[in-house]
Structures
1.
Amino acid sequence: MTELAFSTATELAARIRSGEIGSLELTDHYIERIERFDGEINAVVVRDFERARAAAREADARLAKGEASGPLHGVPITIKESYDVTGLATTWGLPVLKDNIAGSDSESVKAYRAAGAVLLGKTNVPVNLADFQSYNDIYGTTGNPWDRTRTPGGSSGGSAAALAAGMTALESGSDIGGSIRNPAHFCGVYGHKPTWGIVPPQGHALPGMVGGPDIAVCGPLARSAQDLDLAMRLLAGPEPLDRPGWRLDLPEPRGASLGELRVALWPNDERAPVAQEIADRVAEVGEILAKRGATVSDSARPSFDPRDSHRTYLEHLQSIMSAGVPEETYAQLKQAAESLDPDDLSDAALNLRGMVLSHRDWIRANHARERLRYAWRAFFDEWDLLLCPQMATTAFPHDHADFNERTLDVDGSPRPYFEQLFWAGLITGSYLPSTVFPTGPASDGLPIGLQAVGPEYDDLRTIEFARLVADEIGGFVPPPEYR
């Protein structure tokens, strides 16, 4: 039965439809694995097993009458804790919200239920979804199934860990600073950060926040590129207020083979250096593509200064992350920002200014972003895809020290902890889609994932590329302890 745990959602749905296995049998199988393994991993922190079993029984009964609900009929899934699920708490890891019980489902949960999925529960997150790790005072710390002394990433760390350990068939996370992509990389699974604005974010918000935040997205994690494709076709579409007149028509992937593609490589950058082994992995995948006939360049770049791109990203990121701070705190931040040297362009200074960004300055930052978007559009007129790292290292040991005291060890050199936002923000700040796909282990035995980036709205292209690469080098591999 172990192979069931690591089957793709697409495969499991086919087996249910064929009658090879029932939804209740499969649901019980995943529940048994959660109860057996999750005490040591701590990924599925909100469990809704009885309602899941009831939904699975109903799925089996409906299928017996020839009434399959959709492409995920009867398939058990989990979802990130930050999504609203009727009757369950939505806390974002904040103790003050431990009794915040959702009165309705988020849009993504509605889409999954409409497709026939059975919801097992919710997975762990960091406080306020603001870390490369996943721990909080409500649910505790989530470990990486490849090495539980290390982080599974954040903020969708529980999502990726549950998938990697074979405790769920499909997941959805959210991403503003790599929160889908970073855990996918650390845990050896697939994650897709969609083009901004194409997956409705309603029901993924703190209390009182109704409008979708700038640059933040909701999107799927899975054990295969095929499952990402399936999930995106279910999740993408207009948000509720736009449905009377807004339609989405994502382009289908172009090209049936790797050899037809034009791929640019960005293996490293002095702005945020990555471990040589990760930079080399970008080059190695590029060599495989070239051998298959693809046009590959390690020097092609969009026509902007990456420092300007990072500055614009941090302005937008911090203005969002600080939107809910108390007035007294905001006043203190504003006073500190006003005392900065105007020539100080350090990350600390950029972050502080972003936290108190005025609407006037946001308009200016938005113009800068639009220039970046046009530069990317011109770049993707010549290149189909960009390959680059997601993070500087493989999964690092748990580190719960103060943020200001944390560093990342990059080939023996301590680097600023949040410096690695560069690789996430390069893509996020300009609304681009990115699919993180596994490329095999590093020398330490931990997974390495890379970003496949495409032009806005070409989400299915980056996902299809990840599928084609898996045919060449292999895809998801279960962690040894959980096979």
Note: DSSP finds 15 helices and 15 strands in the chain.
2.
Amino acid sequence: MRSMFTRLISVFLIVILVFIMALLTVYYTSSLRQNRTRALNTLKSEGQDLAYLASESRYNPLTMSFEYSSTTNKYIQRKLENLYSKYSSYCIIIDRTGRVLVYIDPSLLNDEEVLSTLNSEELTNTLNRVTAGEEVEFTTNTSGGTMFTVAIPWMQDGRVMGAVVIQTASQVINANFQRTLIPVLIVAFAATALAVVLFSWLARQMTRPLTQMERSANAIAQGNFSIRAQENTGTRETRALAKAFNDMAVQMESLETSRRDFIANVSHELRSPLTSIQGYIQGVQDGTFPEEDQDKYLSVALEETQRLSKLVSGLLNLSRIEREDIPLNCTDFDLNELARRVLITKEGQIDEKKIEVEAELGDGPCLVRADRDQINQVLVNLLDNAIKFTPEEGRISLSTRTERDKAVFRIADSGQGISPEDAPHIFDRFYKADKAHTTGHGTGLGLAICKKIMEKHNEHIELKNSETGAVFEFTLPLAAENRPSEPDQEA
């Protein structure tokens, strides 16, 4: 679970970092391009202003040069200094011949710094383009790095008289952008760190109940079915998973208890007749029993073998019924007729105990659709129990009725009944209690078999409340031809 948590964190970090790097790359490239464009536009605008001021000069034939008034020259120097302080830009004003007319105060820099970055070929080419009235901008790779150059023509009387040349290093423009990039990077990585912290907390909240469930699952695998997962922690999904896990644990605990009880009950039920058989046979063989009593004890041993055979048959029947791969052989048959046949087979036992039988099975057929052999087994088991627990000269009643599309079979006896404590368990396999309806020398499988047969038919069998004796009812679907027709519905 920890390795999964670590992988989640690692994957999340990788995704976040890749996303941030991609976003920053796009942002950096786009912003750098925009920043360069804005810087060049600013330089071009400043150059245009300087070109206008340069056009205020007057040509002096004596000195054969252009001269500026002191006011204009101060204003030009101020703009040159501002450009230098803001962009570290070198700016000069030259005439058509390439002679420098104005440059920044020599105390700040020398015009040779600018001219050294322009070879004669570039300067000549630039002047030729400027004298044609074109505004020129280009990039120059020098030993000191990449330089941006802007050249703006200045004019007098409609004629180009020279150019304003502004040049700055690319790292200066990039530095301005990088100063804004650093806070962006700090915010981005701070957001990443916050996201990692939040994701770590969320992941731990999600994985903590999963880790606890993993430990619980390992405990259950080792046979400790009492362990439970916490249902009040984690997300809604993990809480639902914990509840489902606990439901599974309860069912597994119940199944394990049933398995152990089943093994214990089977062992007990098998051991008792085998011990009796072994004891009686050894008593006959070694002469412990008198010769005239040997037949009696052999008869008892035979009864025990029959009891053992009945137990094994019951277990086999229950196992066969519970198998999902054995389908039901459903046919239409008369439930009333089947009940009468079962009564006939038990006539000897009924007469022996002088039991009065009341059969309200109706004159006509009660057609149902089910597996006839299995329903016959249910009727036999219920009637056997009723005969067994009905006292001599008691009473047993059988009846059938229909309710909508169901047939309801009912059997009641006049025995001592079933206590409220035993009632919830009477359909459990091997369940026998002193006051339960399954008390006696039975196997404790009869009612369990009845329950499984009815469940396989998707029907139910239940113990009904009764002041005296025990009453059982089960339902079966009526055959199609025996179902009441539905009234026509008005359109």
Note: The chain is about 55% helix and 20% strand.
3.
Amino acid sequence: MELLEYQAKELFRMVGIPILPSQTIKDSRKIKQLQIPYPVVLKSQVRSGGRGKAGGVRFVANTIDAIAATRSIFNLSILGEYPEVILAEAHYNTERELFLAIVLDYDLQCPVLLGSAFGGMNVNSLLGNLQQVVVNTDFSLFFARRLAANMGLSGKLICSVSEIIAKMYCLFQEKDLELIEINPLGVNTKGELMALDGKITINDHALGRQPIVETLSFSEQQKKSSHHSIWKTNKDFSQVSWRWLDWHHKTGGIAMICSSFDSALLTWDLLKQKKATPARSAILENSLTAEANNLQLYGEQLLDILTELESCPEIKVIILNIWETEAVSREIMQTIMDYCQAAEESALPSPEEPILVNSNIARREGQFNYSQSAKSNEKPDKPHFILRLLNKDNLDIQREDDVNDLSTSGKIYLSSNLEEVINQAVLRVKT
């Protein structure tokens, strides 16, 4: 999820990175109520770069110019994207401009600090003087100072820029970012720093465990660009800890519920090796503690996944590859047992069902067909559960007899061995 400039600066403000007074405009008529003294800069809030060269950044000195510029920016498409918001920001006089960024390098599998003494729109100068420092151990101010020195900074500027880098890294780590960038970082004649533009990319898979995203007012274009299920599950982002992966196969007979993306990928690969095609996969991440209320929430979210899977009648087997604490394993087992018991009770015929009355009438009229009656009263079978849980022999389930009954009936299988789980799932889906 790529944040817009005004959203990135809201995160900057939270950690003390200096930003200018600003105001968001969603309607060109609201520019008359601007509370920032002129001159101001009006910026189109779109995800693409090059807004200045495309005409999406305008300097205005009065209300009349601001009205005309706002209308023009709202009607300006930049790489096919029209802004839903314009950022009005105070003007800042700079003596020089710097570039700072932190990016997650997937090849090195660690963050990398980037910096250039020549920031702004001149990309050639920026790249020609780009410096980098690999953060291959726990972050400390040493890495930030090293980058500032490599950029050719000196005196107090090394200290002040290093502090900005440290604050950027704090955001990078706490908010699960893939990228954080300040370009330009303005330096005025007094040596004071100001983040004049910002760019942040949050890992899509981390949005569910970041409560801050609820306050950022994502645009419709941002939502469309990110994983669709992020917006589907729960409006209260602080309570979301599960999501669907975008893996679908209409004819697949297996659903997967895993505790991480890596475990889902491994489970998927092992199933494919057995020539079994998974239909859907969900990630149930544990960002909770072992407190009773949190464990209950974990069970409720697992139940939400199972409820949604009921709309997929082709699924015959549900694999749970959850490698968590014993407390979480117990909660999972209890939830599955309750779910299976509720399914069995709902499958029992009710004496008040209309089918019994209709069958009596049909029998009296000599038109009753037992096979048709059974078929009309038939309910789809619930899927088999194949569970891979930590220390499955030590779960200390209160209803141990029920677990044994379910295991004997073939509706549930427990193991701590992933290979056994895969074999059992493939066996059941092919029968």
Note: The domain at 1-19+93-220 is CATH 3.30.470.20 (D-amino Acid Aminotransferase; Chain A, domain 1).
